[in-house]
C-alpha cells in the first residue's frame, strides 16, 4: 500500500449548475466553485492496495442533494491502478550481484559466501527455519516472479561456477 498524490483538472461543460463537491468514496469540497465552462484542479492522496492486481479508481463530481455528473450522462473520471507483484529478490549495492553467488555483498565471490550458503542450507536440511534475510542472501537464482525463496543445490552450483571463474 504505497501512498501517492493524484491531481486532475476538471472542466465543467454543462450549463445548469455550479459544482462545489466531488465524490471519492466520500465527499470532498472543490478548491473553489466551478461554473459552467470553468476548470479547476483537484488533488488528493491515494494509497495503492497492498495486494497485486488491477484496480479501478473513479471520481464523480456532484452537486450536493441535486445531481452527479454520472446521473447527467457524463462518465466519471477513471484511473486504472496496477499494483505489481514486488520482487522478494535482494541485491548488492555494488560489486558482483547476489545472483552470481556474492551472498555477503563484499565485492568478492569467495569461501565466505560458500560458508554462508552452507550454514543456511544445513538449517534447511535440519528442518530449521532460516529467516527471510538469510534465505534472500543465498537464493542466487531468485526470480522476481518467485513468491518464496528456494535455497537448494542449484544455488551452490551458481556460487561454485562463479567462484571457479574468479580463481
Structure, described:
This protein starts with a strand and ends with a helix. The strands form 2 sheets. Strands 2, 3, 5, 6 and 7 form a 5-stranded antiparallel sheet that branches. Strands 1-4 form a two-stranded antiparallel ribbon. By secondary structure, it is of the alpha+beta class. 14% of the residues are buried. Strand 2 and strand 3 (27-34) form a beta hairpin. 21% of the residues lie in helices and 31% in strands.
SS elements, strand count: 7
In oligomeric terms, what are we looking at? single chain
Global outline = elongated
Rounded to the nearest angstrom, the distance between the terminal CA atoms is 45 Å
Q: Please count the helical segments.
A: 3
Can you summarize the main beta sheet?
5 strands, antiparallel
Percent helix among the residues?
Answer: 10-25%
Give the radius of gyration.
Answer: 27 Å
Mean pLDDT across the residues is: 75
H/E order of the elements? EEEEEEEHHH
**Percent of residues in β-strands:** 25-35%
- Structural class from helices and strands? alpha+beta
* Unreliable stretches covering 5 or more consecutive residues: 14-20
Offer a concise description of the structure.
21% of the residues lie in helices and 31% in strands.
What does the secondary structure layout of this molecule look like, with pairings?
Layout: E1 3-11, E2 19-23, E3 27-34, E4 39-47, E5 53-63, E6 67-68, E7 77-83, H1 111-125, H2 132-138, H3 153-165
Helix pairs in contact: 1-2, 1-3
Amino acid at each position: 500500500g504505497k501512498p501517492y498524490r493524484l491531481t486532475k483538472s476538471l472542466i465543467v461543460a454543462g450549463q445548469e449548475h455550479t459544482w462545489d463537491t466531488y465524490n471519492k468514496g466520500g465527499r470532498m469540497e472543490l478548491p473553489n466553485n466551478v461554473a459552467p465552462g470553468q476548470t479547476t484542479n483537484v488533488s488528493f492522496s491515494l494509497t495503492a492496495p497492498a495486494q497485486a492486481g488491477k484496480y479501478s479508481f473513479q471520481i464523480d463530481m456532484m452537486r450536493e442533494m441535486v445531481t452527479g455528473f454520472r446521473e447527467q450522462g457524463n462518465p466519471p473520471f477513471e484511473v486504472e491502478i496496477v499494483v505489481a507483484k514486488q520482487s522478494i529478490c535482494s541485491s548488492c549495492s555494488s560489486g558482483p550481484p547476489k545472483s552470481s553467488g556474492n551472498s555477503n555483498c563484499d565485492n568478492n565471490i569467495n569461501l565466505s559466501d560458500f560458508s554462508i550458503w552452507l550454514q543456511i542450507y544445513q538449517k534447511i536440511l535440519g528442518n530449521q527455519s532460516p529467516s527471510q534475510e538469510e534465505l534472500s542472501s543465498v537464493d542466487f537464482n531468485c526470480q522476481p516472479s518467485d513468491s518464496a525463496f528456494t535455497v537448494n543445490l542449484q544455488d551452490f552450483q551458481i556460487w561454485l561456477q562463479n567462484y571457479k571463474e574468479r580463481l
